[in-house]
Amino acid sequence: MSTNSEEPITKVSIVVSHGSLEGVYPGLIMANGARMEGMEASLFFTFFGLDAIMEKRMDKLKVATVGNPGMHMPTILGVLPGMSAFATGMMHKEMEKIDIPPVREFLEMIHDAGGEIYACKASVDMFHLSKKDFCPQVKDIISVGQFYEKSAGGQIIFT
Amino acid sequence: MATEVLAGKTLELDADGHLANRADWNESVAAAIASQEGIPLLTDRHWAVIKYMRAEFEKNGQAPSIRKLTKESGVDTKELYALFPKGPAKKAAKIGGLPKPVGCI
Questions:
Q1: Cβ contacts of residue A76 below 8 Å, gap of 6+?
Q2: Contact at 8 Å (CB) between A11 and A155?
Q3: Would you list which residues of chain A are within 8 Å, Cβ to Cβ, of chain B?
Q4: What is this structure's pTM?
């Protein structure tokens, strides 16, 4: 609102720690949304979030259908072979309808919009990965300390 | 409702500071708003974006998503952010006399 007397947010650092489709998208939407609002934005992928920036895995993220009460589906159904792929397919269709891009394209958009994309060093080491495993938009592999330095003056959003 | 004098016209603004009446818009008004937004000169590339957004708004009743904009206007993401620094979708909409975009993408 134009008469808001609170300080606007000018910078966000978003941590993505999950590797499921529904776990990755909130961070991407928030990073892109931040850039659209003229805020500085960076994304920090850690643990299974690394899947979202790995060349080999980023096109294959799935919706969790087991242990996910948000699916409103009995576990016995969620466990069936193909159910996750089916739910994922449905999610892709619905997202395309409202013009939300697939993960790969979304990261390109965020990067081209000036968002910075990082991988967590500890997770990279743990999974025996290196920069060549990631998409070209990844700027660097950084430690948690470096993440905090880069987040100075902004808000940290953990997803 | 606030009013502002721009390009020699008294214009009504909505709560977000965008033009309240789309009929008030013309290219001089656009240039005046652009100046206020820190864009002293609207080039052909700016106009490509503005015209696309206005056409889409006419067609669909709302501004296009930034994804659609960068794919179909001929202006890609990098160029868009260079043309309209800090919040291109909102800026281009304001300059184009359109209401603030409500989409999340």
A1: none
A2: yes
A3: 1-2, 29, 32-33, 35-38, 98-101, 108-109, 112-114
A4: 0.93
CB distance from B70 to chain A under 8 Å?
yes
User: Per the domain annotation, does A2 fall within a domain?
Assistant: no
Give the angle subtended at the CA of A33 by the CAs of B104 and A26, to the nearest 5°.
Answer: 75
Tokens describing residue A129: 């990965």
Q: What is the pLDDT of residues A91-114, one digit of tens each?
A: 999 999 999 999 999 999 999 999
Is residue B65 among the annotated active site residues? no
How many structural domains does chain A have? 1
Question: Is the torsion defined by CA of A76, A81, A85, A90 positive or negative?
Answer: negative
Instruction: Determine, for residues B78 and A98 on separate chains, whether the beta-carbon distance falls below 8 Å.
Output: no
ipTM score assigned to the predicted complex: 0.92
Sort out which chain A residues have CB atoms less than 8 A from B17's CB and list them.
2
Residue A15 falls within a domain, yes or no? yes
**Running along chain B, 105 residues long, what does each successive block of 10 average in pLDDT?**
88 95 95 96 97 96 93 96 92 96 89
Contacts of B88 in chain A (CB under 8 A): 36
What is the greatest pairwise CA distance in chain A?
53
**Structural domain includes residue B6:** yes
Give alpha helix (H) positions in chain A.
21-36, 75-78, 83-97, 103-112, 121-126, 144-150
* Domain assignment of residue A70, yes or no: no
Task: Report the alpha-carbon distance of residue A27 to residue A45 in Å, rounded.
Answer: 10
pLDDT in tens, A32-74: 999 999 999 999 999 999 999 999 999 999 999 999 999 999 9
